[in-house]
């Protein structure tokens, strides 16, 4: 390949990287905006202004607010799934990986705010994120139930604990802790909700040796 050809190809690659960086900026601005005012209260013009681009410039990346919302949710899940997969690859149990994810989320307040707010908003079947959250809850509960059933077969579930009930309760606990944690942030640090500690405590109630693989 000639030097001229290499030089000709360089600008598109740089342009692609710049476009990806701008897309990431838009996603982060959208997370903050959705967290502050919810999906219905947010405007693409406001999000564009946060990033320092024009409204048409934002539409080049995300043609509709629904498309931007979908990208935000997919981005959040991609980050979370990557973190959990890394922990699993390092030999940690699924539930220890989830506890570690909760610990990391305590450092991502806007992400927790947007998820908690949108999950409540999206109960309406007309909300653009309704199908996303409905499928997400089904998949999450199913994965928890499968893992708890496996642990039950290995004698690791405490007597009287039903895997299906525990799976639903675990997901509900995680969501509820996020909301309580957000409210507790206005309190002195010693009085704030420790999501990871409370989750570990619940796992200790239903599992024998909850930290084991």
Automatic annotation (TrEMBL):
PROSITE patterns: HTH_TETR_2. Transmembrane segments: none annotated. Residues 20-80 form the HTH tetR-type domain. Keywords: DNA-binding, Repressor, Transcription, Transcription regulation. Gene3D superfamilies: Tetracycline Repressor, domain 2. The keyword Iron does not apply. The keyword Repressor applies. GO terms for molecular function: DNA binding. Residues 43-62 bind DNA. PANTHER family: HTH-TYPE TRANSCRIPTIONAL REPRESSOR NEMR (PTHR47506:SF6), TRANSCRIPTIONAL REGULATORY PROTEIN (PTHR47506). This is Transcriptional regulator, TetR family. It comes from Krasilnikoviella flava.
């Amino acid at each position: 390949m000639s030097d001229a050809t290499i030089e000709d190809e360089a600008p598109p690659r740089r342009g692609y990287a710049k476009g990806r960086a701008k897309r990431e900026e838009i996603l982060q601005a959208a997370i903050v905006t959705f967290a502050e005012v919810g999906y219905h209260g947010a405007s693409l013009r406001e999000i564009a202004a946060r990033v320092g681009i024009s409204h048409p410039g934002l539409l080049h990346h995300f043609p509709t607010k629904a498309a931007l919302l979908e990208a935000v949710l997919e981005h959040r899940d991609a980050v979370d799934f990557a973190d959990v997969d890394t922990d699993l690859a390092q030999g940690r149990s699924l539930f220890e990986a989830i506890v570690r994810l909760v610990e990391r989320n305590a450092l991502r307040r806007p992400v927790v705010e947007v998820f908690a707010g949108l999950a409540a908003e999206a109960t309406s079947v007309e909300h653009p994120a309704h199908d996303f959250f409905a499928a997400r809850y089904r998949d999450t509960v199913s994965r928890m139930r499968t893992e708890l059933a496996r642990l039950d077969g290995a004698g690791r579930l405490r007597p009287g604990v039903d895997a299906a009930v525990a799976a639903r309760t675990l997901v509900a606990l995680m969501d509820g802790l996020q909301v309580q944690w957000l409210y507790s942030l206005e309190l002195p640090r010693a009085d704030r909700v420790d999501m990871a500690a409370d989750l570990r405590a619940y796992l200790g109630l239903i599992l024998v040796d909850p930290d084991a693989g």
